[in-house]
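Below is how a single chain appears once it has passed through the pipeline. First comes the sequence as given, then the structure the pipeline wrote out for it. We keep one example in the README because the format questions we get most often are answered faster by looking than by reading.
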Amino acid sequence: MINMKKYFLLLLLLILVSGCSETVDKAEEISEEEVELEVDQEEAVKTEEKVLGESFVAGDFTWKITGVETATKVGSGNDDWFIGEEADGIFLIISVEVENTGKKSAYLSDSYLTLVDDQDREFSADSMAAIYLDDDSALSFEEINPGIKKKGKIVFDVPPELSIANIRIQSSLFETEFYNVKIDIPEN
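Resulting structure:
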């Protein structure tokens, strides 16, 4: 009877070990496939360089960066009271024109834009600061119908010493095609 238990335990151990080695083999196969997929995705990323004032198509939108300005705060008020947002560094305010050139309505988001400085640091848009723009021109998230052109501003909070950067624009959150617009940042 004891030999039977030993035999059963040995058989169970062999089954477990063979199952584990098969799992390790499959894990190695998956890891190799993931690495190949990551390399393919890196190769698929396309970047085009554009200049300030130049129109270009990114997905269903035609973009044009029309201006750049800086501010230490956005909002309204005076020395006694202030409603708005103060920059941690400086606010870089990008003026844009965007037209939906597609066949159906599409969502536009300020998260389609990333500011990249000369040290390859990436800055995302500051939607909270944008809502305090005096002229109610924030473009942060909205649906745009075909043929409609919007003008607005997108705000970034950046270090005060920043003097040159690229605005990287993608057509949606899932795209791998980017457009870079080089900008010189005016002194504040």
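The chain has two helices and eleven strands.

See the next section for the split statistics.
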